[in-house]
């Protein structure tokens, strides 16, 4: 087997592995997010052109949802209304829910602000805001590897959860029936004044399409 063929097989194998599950991902360099520590600060523009920072939500619980509408794993949660239901349930209780798009221009999942608002409307989604991270600085700071990749920050700005939305790393709608939703569990415990019992889980989904 010549070198070119071997490289081609290796490349194809790595690409297939990346699609299958989060164990195939290598976390972005320079990740600064650590459980129990202050969440990395950010300043991003939302889909309505407004500058948003983590500091403006001081005193509130914040959920960060890395998303890519072209990813089938994200699609599972939106086609089933699972993600929208979570957004509405918790924003209705004062939680700030921020959907973050780190797809670089020209990559899968990159959208204009108008397209982002259209997607929100068409899917009947209910995030507090959709934030754009086209250079990937915020995603890399958090170590976001997949879509979806979920983070929860408490009112003191401390990161208390990071990982997958649930324990079913597939794109099959039927698996939601047996899924343990880690995000919902964590937010419920926080609302009850309890510590988060499952603060870290395996993230799964499509790789975040960062700028090279």
Question: Can you put this structure into words, describing what you see?
Answer:
This protein has 212 residues and is of the alpha+beta class. The chain has a single domain, classed as 3-Layer(aba) Sandwich (Glutaredoxin). It is 29% helix and 17% strand. The protein contains six helices and nine strands, in the order αβββααβαβαβββαβ. The strands form two sheets. It has a seven-stranded mixed β-sheet. It has a two-stranded antiparallel ribbon with strand order 6-9. The longest helix is centred in the first third of the chain and has 18 residues, at 3-20. It is globular, with a radius of gyration of 17 Å. 35% of the residues are buried. Residues 1-27 have low confidence and may be disordered.
List the helices and strands and how they pair.
Layout: H1 3-20, E1 43-46, E2 51-53, E3 62-66, H2 72-79, H3 82-91, E4 96-101, H4 113-122, E5 129-132, H5 137-142, E6 146-147, E7 149-153, E8 159-163, H6 182-191, E9 206-207
* SS-derived structural category: alpha+beta
CATH architecture: 3-Layer(aba) Sandwich
Strand content: 15-25%
Assign an overall shape.
globular
State the total count of DSSP E strands.
9
Biggest sheet record: 7 strands, mixed
Mean pLDDT: 89
Spans of at least 5 consecutive residues with low confidence: 1-27
The CATH class: Alpha Beta
CATH fold node name: Glutaredoxin
Rg measurement, Å: 17 Å
The oligomeric state of the chains shown is single chain
Q: Strands across the major sheet, in which order?
A: 2-1-5-4-3-7-8
> Counting H and I runs of at least 4 residues, what is the number of helices?
6
Residue share in helices?
Answer: 25-40%
The CATH superfamily turns out to be Glutaredoxin
Provide the succession of SSEs: HEEEHHEHEHEEEHE
Amino-to-carboxy terminus distance: 30 Å
- The domain tally reads 1
């Amino acid at each position: 087997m010549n070198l070119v063929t071997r490289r081609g097989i290796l490349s194809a194998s790595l690409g297939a592995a990346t699609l299958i599950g989060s164990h195939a991902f290598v976390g972005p360099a320079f990740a600064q997010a650590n459980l129990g520590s202050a969440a990395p600060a950010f300043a991003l523009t939302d889909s309505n052109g407004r500058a948003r920072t983590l500091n403006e939500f001081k005193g509130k619980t914040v959920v960060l949802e890395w998303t890519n509408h072209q990813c089938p794993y994200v699609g599972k949660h939106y086609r089933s209304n699972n993600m929208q239901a979570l957004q509405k349930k918790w924003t209705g209780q004062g939680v700030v829910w921020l959907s973050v798009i780190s797809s670089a221009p020209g990559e899968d999942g990159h959208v204009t602000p108008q397209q982002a608002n259209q997607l929100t409307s068409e899917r009947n989604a209910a995030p507090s805001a959709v934030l754009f991270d086209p250079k990937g600085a915020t995603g890399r700071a958090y170590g976001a590897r997949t879509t979806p990749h979920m983070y929860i920050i408490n009112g003191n700005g401390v990161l208390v959860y990071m990982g997958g939305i649930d324990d079913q790393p597939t794109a099959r709608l039927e698996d939601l029936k047996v899924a343990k939703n880690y995000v919902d569990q964590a937010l419920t415990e926080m609302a009850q004044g309890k510590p988060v019992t499952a603060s870290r889980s395996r993230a799964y989904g499509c790789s975040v399409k960062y700028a090279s």
